[in-house]
Structures are given as structure tokens and as C-alpha cells.
Specification:
mainly alpha; rod-shaped
Length: 99
């Protein structure tokens, strides 16, 4: 009498079925949120908002880089709106003569 467990042979059909089976659902896998993005009319802002879609295909630890990039770009766009124009630059052909 042997204390060892007899080896069970796996049928070849079962191996082929497992190989052809679709991937199991993984709730932790990246998945698109499919959040609609309404165009703002500003090409720069719209491009930044479209960049958010890049996070859909990344694991959560990769989201930070995308969010920081988008936040920085939107902050720069808002800062540019607050920038006051300086005095007009004289034309290059303008020469002030000394008398």
C-alpha cells in the first residue's frame, strides 16, 4: 500500500478549452470611465481634457502623472488669461534721435 497520491492525468480537451476560454473579468484591471467631454471652444483646454482619456488605460498608480500634467496645463491656460498685456513694443524701425 502506497501513501503517495496517484497522479491524475488531465484530459487534453480540458487543456485546449482552458487555453481558448476568454480572459476572466478582473475588477482591478484598468477600464475606461467613458466620461463625456464637452468641447470648451479653447483648443488648448480641449487638448488637456482629452489627455485625461490616457488615464483610462493605466493602473491607478499611473493616473497621478496624467492628472498632474493636465492640471499644470490648465493652470497655465488660466494664468495666461490673467496676464495683463504690457506696453506696446515700439517698431524696430523707430529710432529716437538725440539732439
Amino acid at each position: 500500500m502506497s501513501d503517495s497520491v496517484p497522479e491524475t492525468e488531465i484530459p487534453q480537451d480540458a487543456v485546449q478549452e482552458a487555453a481558448q476560454a476568454p480572459e476572466a473579468y478582473d475588477p482591478a484591471a484598468p477600464a475606461p470611465l467613458n466620461v463625456p467631454r464637452t468641447p470648451t471652444g479653447s483648443a488648448e483646454v480641449d487638448a488637456r481634457l482629452e489627455r485625461l482619456a490616457d488615464a483610462d488605460h493605466l493602473a491607478t498608480d499611473g493616473h497621478v502623472e496624467v492628472y498632474e500634467d493636465v492640471h499644470g496645463g490648465l493652470r497655465d491656460a488660466l494664468t495666461a488669461l490673467d496676464a495683463r498685456p504690457g506696453p506696446p513694443v515700439p517698431p524696430t524701425s523707430y529710432h529716437q534721435s538725440r539732439s
